């Protein structure tokens, strides 16, 4: 059997290059090939975050993952991306696939891996965790997500409004992701449940143009970007209440 | 008004020193005073993780947070810790408070902050996010927590078994923390719901003695350490199913 390269999946965090881990930093400096997901022709966020690591000595693989729902076309895109990655691995070169946030949370990496394992079943693999935008948002707000016995739910709103309602009913803190396309429906739901005053909006966490909005009714639904989220703290538990007050939310 | 020092809350990740961020690394090298939470006299995990940053030139503040439930005694401990931190801040020295994982997820930091704000209402503050043990566990397992439209719940079991049952009923992936003291009850619940084969156990994430157990019935309840968790993937959604299979879970 030939000696093959190792595939690294690197969580690059939400945007701030200093939120990369030392592990990610070391591997990005060390690998020959850096692969990044790319949307509609424009430079992807992962590539922007780790731009300083892309030196002339390295190969940059921009892997095209179209923002579509067609399983057939997506599968084709993953297969093509996997083929490119496999060509380097089989030549014995290490490849670092960089993903925003953390690889375990809504990352494209595992689709790529699935396609790659058809080509290289025993691919040598290392996952490097990253900072989630959820933790980045909490850092900007200087508030805890959960304390003591509290429970946390993380729900993508765009295709799952029923799950959002369910989470708001039963969890102490609910992080609602992918709100841009269903912003008005989510806001109506928060209004109906009397949770608007317990909701904070954050967009573009980790970037210099990050923005926090406490009065979410002031938001223009048409300007809510893809990288935005609501944090809803239901106030069910006393411990969080006092903390909430103490940190000025 | 006197110039005061800045307080940093640093998420040190679950155990692996390379899982510190570049931001944490920079601040830990730069500050004069490093504060760490400490349990029953023994060296705390946060201190172990960042041990290499504790040079003779720095002050190490070991803040005693007893593992008790008495609000009165806890409040006393936080007040005493805050007083120590405040004494450095008011002298114009920066203090880095180091916490395991991420500061927003079940961290003692916000209790300390609450006490400190009574003494220094306008304390200059910066939160540095960290890698959660949840992401660390997923990295070790090389499996995603959630994909696509899936929902995630994070529930501490020890004081909230009803919330665990609720989460298992409605969420695609449930991370159950603080399982040591209620291990048998949680396992019985997973059995009852037919979820044992969809559950993975991980302990001491980020450490060299980290351990993954796929067949959770093989676990000895008496040896389950505090730093352990279950990840339960309910298999409700097809996308995750195929991914689960592809990564060999």
Structural key phrases:
homodimer, 249 residues, alpha/beta, Cobalt-precorrin-4 Transmethylase, domain 1, Methyltransferase, Cobalt-precorrin-4 Transmethylase, Domain 2, 2 domains, five-stranded parallel sheet, five-stranded mixed sheet, 8 helices, 10 strands, disordered C terminus
Give a verbal description of the structure.
Chain A has about 250 residues and is an alpha/beta fold. Chain A has two domains: about 5-130, Tetrapyrrole methylase, N-terminal domain (Cobalt-precorrin-4 Transmethylase, domain 1, 3-Layer(aba) Sandwich); about 135-245, Tetrapyrrole methylase, C-terminal domain (Methyltransferase, Cobalt-precorrin-4 Transmethylase, Domain 2), CATH 3.30.950. Helix content of chain A is about 35%, strand content about 20%. A five-stranded parallel β-sheet of chain A has the order 3-2-4-1-5, with helices on both faces. In chain A, about 50% of the residues are buried. At the A-B interface, α1, α4, β5, α5 and β6 of A face α1, α4, β5, α5 and β6 of B.
Layout of secondary structure:
The structure is a homodimer of 249-residue chains.
Chain A: E1 6-11, H1 22-30, E2 33-38, H2 45-49, E3 59-64, H3 71-90, E4 95-99, H4 109-119, E5 124-128, H5 133-141, E6 152-156, H6 161-170, E7 173-177, H7 183-192, E8 199-203, E9 211-213, E10 228-233, H8 238-246
Parallel strand pairs in A: 1-4, 1-5, 2-3, 2-4, 6-7
Antiparallel strand pairs in A: 7-10, 8-9, 8-10
Helix pairs in contact in A: 3-4, 6-7
